[in-house]
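Hey,
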Amino acid sequence: MKRVLLSPSQAMENSAIFLLQSLAAIHLTMTLFMYLVALVLILIYPLYLYITKPLNRIKRHGDLGYHFGTPELADKYRDKQIERLKRIRMKGDLPPVYPNGWYCIAESPQLAHKQIMPIVVFGEQLSLIRSEDGSVHLIDSYCPHLGANFNVGGRVVDNNCVQCPFHGWVFSAESGSCTRIPYNDGTIPEQARVTVWPVVERNQHIYVWFDADGSAPEWEIPSIDDIQNGQWTYKGRTEHEVACHVQEIPENGADIAHLGFLHLAGAPVGNDIIRIDLSDRAPSIAHKWNGNWSASNTEKHVSKMHLEQVLKFHGFDIPLSASKLDAIQIGPGIVHMHLDFGTLGKGIVLHHVTPEEPLMQRARFVMYSNLPRWFAKFFLLAEANQFERDVYVWSNKRYVKNPLLVKNDGPIGKHRRWYSQFYSDNSPRLLPDGTLSNRAKSVLEW
């Protein structure tokens, strides 16, 4: 076959065409690749945000903890059934309903400057105030003039004062005294004052002190240095309303035996103990627990539960699932859960139980750590699932004053004797007719 020789100009022209075609192909390939990367990012980015966004799981009373039959009741019928269950529930011989101690009433980021936050605690409506200078104060919600509620239309004025929305009377949130009446030029009545409650802000939380005998705070809440200096950052929270006595929840720390039954199955099976097969003693994903509880020998208001656990899959340890926990109970309503996940990091979960009514508790878990965000979220979700199994029990059980205990139940009796120090003769009790033996009041009201 005869070869056709190209002139130099033709050869250069062909080379240029080939180069342009190659560049076009490369450009097309790069364009397609960039579109593919963009598509992957569009699909993955929301998942990334979900995995790393701090958890904020809130369960209100009635969201879980009750059985509504099959098929389940809904809407108004569900609400009526909850009310009926509350009426017919056997409560047992309850201890006093408001033990003496510090209780969490809010998380610091929830209260902005010059804000009034409604608070329900000890069956009372109170007003939590952050002044213009950032300090926090807690007062009764009702104006002594004509009874208006500061939580509805009240304003923070004059740095740390509250102005009533009805007639404009102004009260110091620090002292409780009325400081001015807009339309009155005469003297202010001495009785024009609101009750002030002692509060402290610590570890990004706000606490109120209660003592049925009017005693001043007998111990302080420890400051967590790694929260204060920023070494451990906020990783998420859960919040639950639980219909039970305040003592039932911390008593779990001494009830070692229930861990190997109610909390044997891993989180993937969920939180609903009506649907979980608790009779399965060898679930595919299972917790192995090893724990103990003891009262402090040096600080009488402190106790400790030490707990080690590992998650197993068909009997084999799941990598990175092992953890050690020291849960330090500080008084009746505060637990500092110190967590150690080895190479993954450390942290703390601040667990608070606050009695809003005699048989209604607000339980909060707030995590600070140096753990990866995805892992912290997984832990909080797993913890919430396990806690919610207990909510099903607490919401329906009666309190047994003299329980029938066997050898391996755990030191429940010791825990009750330790916890009893937070009750006194004046501690409010729930009477058979549903009223209280006496009203909870601030120690500054005595």
